[in-house]
Amino acid sequence: MIPSVQIADLTTALMTATAILAALLAREKMGRGQYIDLSFLDVVISLTVLPAASYFAEGKLPRPGRWWLNGGYPCYNVYETKDGKYITIGCVEERFWANLCRALGVVDFVKYQYAGDDKLKEMFEAIRSIFKSRSLDEWLRVLSKEDVPCGPVYELDKVFEDPQTLYRKMIVEVECPAVGKVKQLGTPLKFSETPCEIRSPPPRLGEHTEQILRWLGYGEGEILDMREKGVI
After folding, report:
1. Quick check: 81 and 87 in contact, CB under 8 A?
2. Which of 19, 34, 74, 178 is the most exposed place for a label (fewest CB within 10 A)?
3. At what angle do helices 94-104 and 136-145 cross, to 10 degrees?
4. Mean pLDDT, to the nearest integer, of 121-137?
5. Contact assessment for residue 87 and residue 150, using Cβ atoms and an 8 Å cutoff
6. Upper half-sphere CA count for residue 55 (Cβ side, 13 Å)
7. What homologous superfamily does CATH list for 76-153?
8. Any bridge partners for residue 150, and if so which?
9. If you ran DSSP here, which 8-state letter would residue 73 be given?
């Protein structure tokens, strides 16, 4: 499916912040600045770490639904549960796969984690059927006790209701003069000595225009002239 997140935009922004910090550190040591060059294309290509390594090593293209990280194996997949919801399973390591097989009552599958097509079909059919025998909440309780990496597939509303999301303060309320309190995302950056905080609500269109113009060096007369001419 087409992702609903701007992967290239957001990841390039994060890479840019990392590059700026590295350049600032280099300036402290070398005494000179430098030009930073990043592109969306380069950053997105850099995210294909494992598929690229596999292709470089074997010369084979990772086909959709056939490779180990895109649904090709039962140990790393998504399964529908009895109540029509979905659970994610991330048992790449052998010990986690063994834990899953024991929890599902299919111990014979332990030695076939990365087996060929015939065995894969048998395992997929059996495991999909087993997951449909219990609800999502039941499976989460069972598998968590057995040390199986798993998690629920949430709709967005459930993400924002999750206890861990709330505990981590990823949903915050900000007072907005025009409409009162508004919800927005919190920051994933948690500092022990300098905690982050949101100091102001999102600005209204043009709210800081004059402030920015003054900062750029424009005088009151120039700003008034621009306003009278409809420039701002």
Report:
1. yes
2. 178
3. 120
4. 97
5. yes
6. 8
7. formyl-coa transferase, domain 3 (3.30.1540.10)
8. 89
9. S
Question: Where does the chain have alpha helices with state H?
Answer: 7-30, 40-46, 49-58, 94-104, 117-131, 136-145, 156-161, 163-167, 209-215, 220-228
Q: Which two tokens stand for residue 16?
A: 């840019």
Confidence of residue 199 (pLDDT cuts 50, 70, 90): confident
Query: Which two three-digit tokens encode residue 185?
Result: 């995302």
pLDDT reported for residue 150: 97
The residue type found at 75 is C
CA distance 168 to 92: 27
Q: Tens digit of pLDDT for each residue in 86-98? A: 999 999 999 999 9
Cα 26 from Cα 9, distance rounded (Å): 26
Phi first, then psi: what are they for 72, rounded to 5°? Answer: -80, -15
Burial of 11 (C-beta count, 10 Å sphere; 0-12/13-18/19+): middle
